[in-house]
Write a structure and sequence with these properties.
This protein has two domains: 8-45; 70-280 and 290-298, Protocatechuate 3,4-Dioxygenase, subunit A. The strands form three sheets. The chain has a five-stranded mixed beta sheet, with no helix packed on it. Strands 1, 4, 10 and 11 form a four-stranded mixed beta sheet that branches. It has a two-stranded antiparallel sheet with strand order 5-6. The protein contains eight helices and eleven strands. The protein is an alpha/beta fold. It is 28% helix and 18% strand. The protein binds benzoic acid and fe (iii) ion. Fe (iii) ion (FE) is lined by residues 103, 105, 213, 216, 218.
Length: 300
C-alpha cells in the first residue's frame, strides 16, 4: 500500500489510467490530471473553494439550453477558445487567414444572396461595402467559395435578439464570382456585451471586466479542397478593440472602412479584405463553437 500525499496521488492516478485504450484519450486525460493536480497544489485549494467550483460548474451546465451554450461562453472568456483557434491555425500545412471565434450566433442555412446585396433589412447608419478576393495561398482565385457572413446591427443586436419571429437578418451567404471576388453592402455593426446574466457573466463581473466584444463581422468560408475558415473582421476604431472579452481580435483581422477606387460598389466607404485559404490538410472543423441545440441533443 502506497502512502498517498498531495504529490504522490498524481502518479497513482496516472498509473490507474494507464490502461486507457484510446491513445489520444490517454494523452488528454493524463495531461488534464497532471495540470489539475498542480493547480490545486499551487493555490492550496480548500474544501470550500473546491465546492464553490463544483457549484459554479453545475450552474454553467444548468444555464445551457437550445439557444445558449454557457460552457462555450466560459471557454471563450477564459481564453481557451482562442488558444484552440491559434493551435488550429498552426496545424495547417500553410498559414492562411487567421481564425477567430465562431461565437454563439452563427445560424445554418442563411439565405444565399446575390453579390452586392445588403444583408441588413432596416438601418439608419451609413451603408458600407465589404469586398475582396478569396484565394489559395499562392493568390490563385477560388471561384464559387461559400462566404457566410453574420453580424449585429447598428444597435449591437444579432437577428435572434432583435426579431422575435426568428427571421434571419444581418446575415447572408455569398458565392464568390469567377475571380474569387465577394462583395456586399451592410452597415457598421455595433460592439456588444456577451450574455452577462449567467454564471459566466457573474464571474466576468467579479473579475472587474467589461464583457464587451468590439464591433465585428463574422465570416465562415468554405470551398472544395480547402480548409474551412472561421474568422471575423474587427473595426479598429472600436473603443474595446484592445480588450475583447473573448480574445478574438488579432492584428491581421483589424480593418477600417475607407475610400477605395477599386471597390465594386462605388460611392460607399468600404473594407477590402482578401481571404487566403490553406489547402485541406486534415478533416478537422475550424469551428470553435457549435449550434447550442446540437450540443444539447448530443448530451441526451
Ligand atoms: C460572438 O462573436 O458572437 C461571440 C463570441 C463569443 C461569445 C459571445 C459572442
Ligand atoms: Fe459576434
Amino acid at each position: 500500500m502506497i502512502d498517498l500525499d498531495e504529490n504522490t496521488v498524481t502518479d497513482a492516478t496516472l498509473a490507474q489510467m494507464a490502461t486507457t485504450q484510446d491513445p489520444r484519450l490517454k494523452e488528454i486525460m493524463d495531461a488534464a490530471v497532471r495540470h489539475m493536480h498542480a493547480f490545486a497544489r499551487e493555490v492550496n485549494l480548500t474544501p470550500a473553494e473546491w465546492l464553490t467550483g463544483i457549484a459554479f460548474l453545475t450552474q454553467v451546465g444548468k444555464a445551457c439550453t437550445d439557444i445558449r451554450q454557457e460552457f462555450i461562453l466560459l471557454s471563450d472568456v477564459l481564453g481557451v477558445s482562442a488558444v484552440v483557434n491559434a493551435l488550429h491555425d498552426k496545424k495547417a500545412e500553410e498559414l492562411g487567414t487567421q481564425s477567430s471565434l465562431l461565437g454563439p450566433f452563427f445560424r445554418e442555412s442563411a439565405p444565399v444572396l446575390p453579390l452586392g446585396a445588403n444583408i441588413v433589412s432596416s438601418f439608419t447608419a451609413a451603408e458600407i461595402a465589404m469586398y475582396g478576393q478569396v484565394t489559395d495561398m499562392h493568390g490563385k482565385p477560388i471561384p464559387n467559395a461559400l462566404v457566410q457572413v453574420w453580424q449585429t446591427n447598428e444597435a449591437g443586436w444579432y437577428d435572434v435578439q432583435a426579431h422575435d419571429d426568428g427571421s434571419m437578418d444581418m446575415r447572408g451567404n455569398f458565392l464568390t464570382d469567377a475571380n474569387g471576388n465577394y462583395y456586399f453592402r451592410t452597415v457598421r455593426p455595433l460592439g456588444y456585451s456577451i450574455p452577462m446574466d449567467g454564471p459566466t457573466g457573474r464571474l466576468v463581473k467579479m473579475q472587474g471586466r467589461h464583457g464587451m466584444r468590439p464591433s465585428h463581422i463574422h465570416m465562415l468560408i468554405t470551398a472544395n479542397g480547402y480548409r474551412e475558415l472561421v474568422s471575423a473582421l474587427y473595426f479598429g476604431n472600436d473603443p474595446n478593440i484592445g480588450s475583447d472579452t473573448v480574445f478574438g481580435v488579432s492584428a491581421s483581422l483589424v480593418v477600417e472602412a475607407k475610400d477605395h477606387a477599386d471597390c465594386p460598389i462605388p460611392g460607399l466607404k468600404s473594407v477590402r479584405y482578401d481571404f487566403r485559404m490553406p489547402a485541406a490538410s486534415d478533416t478537422d472543423t475550424g469551428r470553435v463553437g457549435a449550434d447550442p441545440a446540437a450540443l444539447m441533443k448530443a448530451a441526451e
